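Reopening: Transcriptional regulator still failing for me.
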Amino acid sequence: MTTTLEQLRRQFATPCPSLTAVREQYFTHIRTDRHLLNEIKAGRIELVVKRLHCSVRAKPVVYLHDLADYLDAQATSQAA
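Support: Ran it again with your exact input. Result attached.
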């Protein structure tokens, strides 16, 4: 049986896809990165978003292990 992280590694060509790529794949109901970031900051979506360097202009990314943790937690909460 493959783990969520292994499946994500096959899906994405990078260990840290952009927030846009993650939003387009997993949050299709959210139309903009800004709205997704607002949902994350408000605590309604418990996903870790980082920047590859300290610049404000650096694009937000999501590390695959953080995305896997989020997806696994969602699956567990849905099953309960």
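Residues 4-75 form one domain. If you still see a failure, please send the error message rather than a screenshot.
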